Structure prediction request, 191 residues.
Amino acid sequence: MLACRSVTMSDWPVLETLMGPKGVGGGCWCQWAVVPRGGKLWRECQGTGNRNAFRRQIQSGEAHGSLAFHGEECVGWCRYGPTESFPRLANSPSLNGDPPAGTWSVVCFYIPARWRGRGVATALLRHALDEMLGKGVALVEAYPVPDSTRSGAAQPAAFAWMGVASLFTRRGFRPLSRAGVARKIYRLAMD
Prediction:
């Protein structure tokens, strides 16, 4: 049985345990979409800088997210929030779909390997959408990767941290048509 709830300002120890001492993804600490650009700036933030920023965001209530639990064990995390709170999206030609004001984005999932393929991401997304609907959000964007690689193999987890397309299409998200851009942005109008 999985139970999901919104992250609270006192959940830093839960997230620190879930993400481990290195903060998954080479010291990302769920900051990829928050740090305005990659390259040198990203490398300077990785690790301790990202950890401190994430802790501040959690403890101040700035970060929006859903946590999944199996009993007392936290088994997954999903981050979402107002699109403008994720500057990397606006600075990325492949991820900037010029969303209308008030759009929110789902930018990250982290599920430990032993819990993948067990419905955790589905439960997290459902909870996140319910929370956004409760906040009056009218439009949600997501930036998933295809479900499989060109060879037909399942997408490696290391590349699926923004989710896979089927996770979102099952919830009613539809791809945004954009000429000349390979990466698809998915949108859901909340009714």
